[in-house]
Structures are given as C-alpha cells and as structure tokens.
Amino acid sequence: MSQVTTNSVGGSPSPSGSLSNSSALGLGELGIGGAGLGLLLAQGESPLPSEFGQLTANVPTLENDSSTLFNEGQTFTNQGSQALNMAQNGVLTPQQQAQLQVYQGGLQNTAAQEYATMGRNSNQDTSFVSTQANIDTQVNAMAQQEIQSTIALGLGETSAGSNFTGQALGYENAANTALIAAGNAQLQQDKDYSSSLTSAFTAVASIAGKAAVAA
User: Fold this and answer.
1) 158, 74 in Cβ contact below 8 A?
2) 128-214 and 94-117 helices cross at what angle (nearest 10)?
3) Are the beta carbons of 81 and 173 closer than 8 angstroms?
4) Domain extents for the chain?
5) d(Cα 159, Cα 136) in Å, to the nearest integer?
6) pLDDT for 132
7) CA dihedral of 59, 65, 70, 75, whole degrees rounded to 10
8) In this structure, what are the phi and psi dihedrals at residue 56, rounded to the nearest 5 degrees?
9) What is the CA radius of gyration of the chain?
10) How open is the CA angle 17-19-25, to the nearest 5 degrees?
11) Most buried residue, 65, 75, 126, 166, by most Cβ within 10 Å?
C-alpha cells in the first residue's frame, strides 16, 4: 500500500515529496525592481531638453539663408568672370562703346572746327592725318581706361561672390552643427534609456529568480 501524508495545515493530502505551485509574480510583487521597471515603461523615454528644440527650430531659416546667399554669390561670381574675360579680350561693353563713340566724335568735331577757323578743310588737308592720329591715341587711351574699369568691376564682383559664398557656407555649417548636436543628444538619450530598461529587467529577473528558489 502506498503511504499518503497530510499537510500540516488543512490536512489535505498530497503525494509524498511534491511542491505546491506558486502563482505568477506581478511587477508590484517584485518590489523596488518591479516598481522601477513599471515606472520606466509608463513614462517612456524623456524628450530632449528645450535648447535642442530651439537649435533645430532655427535650421530651416539657416538653410534658407544659406541657399539665398549662395545663389547671390554664384551670380556675382559669374558676372565677375564674364567681366574679366571681356577685359582680357579687349572687349568693351555696349555702354562703354557708346561713350567712346561720343568721345571720339567730340574730338573730331573740335578738330574740324579748328581747321575751319583757319580756313582749312579737315577732309582735304593732309596735316589732318597727324591730328587724326592724335585723336586715335586719345580714344585708345580712353578705351584702356574703360578696360581697366571693367577689370576692377570684375574683381569686385568676384570678391563679393566669394564673400556671399563664404557666408552661405557659415549658415550651412551652423545648420549642420545644430542637427548633429541634436542627433548626438538623441542617440545618447536612447542609449541611456535602453541601459535603464536593461538594468531594470535584470533586477526584476534577479528578484524573480530568488523568489522561485525560495518557493
């Protein structure tokens, strides 16, 4: 005959050597570890500090300003390059050509009037050849001055283009720096939150293990 033992409380029989089953432990029954894990899960990951929000809020404005300045810089740079190319080839702008023609016409008219006061015809007098040569020299000198002004204009526009491009790069760098700072902060916060969850889960598992051994 098999022998049956009775529990010390209640007298209900159970097979010899068997253990009674324990109910599943809830987070509240796991003490501090369970409470900490429950709080982490309930609150979730905290948002980034407000200063990072302010930084990233300025990014669209910085990028827009950068784009505007860069386009202006490109415009000035292109205009400067065109002006320098014209000057290098000895080409005058339409406005400069018009001014030169007016200047040349004025010199020729003045010379013709001087010849006329002396009773001489500038179109028939051979001495007018030297006068015309002198006029041509003055016209060429003015043309060279116009070319020099074109060079100065081209250099100025190129310099302005470089300045605008540099400012655009500064704004773009500021925007990138803000995004990188916010991104790094978010990554660090994700890492910290993950570490907190891991620690809490480890604590709960340890408590649950100890409770199982005690049972």
Assistant:
1) no
2) 160
3) no
4) 31-37+49-214
5) 34
6) 93
7) 160
8) -70, -25
9) 46
10) 165
11) 65
Residues 81-132 pLDDT 10s: 999 999 999 999 999 999 999 999 999 999 999 999 998 898 888 889 999 9
Q: CA angle, corner 17, sides to 14 and 22, nearest 5?
A: 70
Query: Amino acid letter at 3?
Result: Q
Count how many residues are written for the chain: 215
Residue 5 near residue 14, CB atoms below 8 Å: yes
Note whether 77 and 162 are within 8 A (CB): yes
Q: Scanning the structure block, which residue is given the tokens 């002198």?
A: 134
pLDDT band at residue 12 using 50, 70 and 90 as cut-offs? very low
d(CA 40, CA 206): 18
Q: How far apart are the first and last CA of the chain?
A: 30
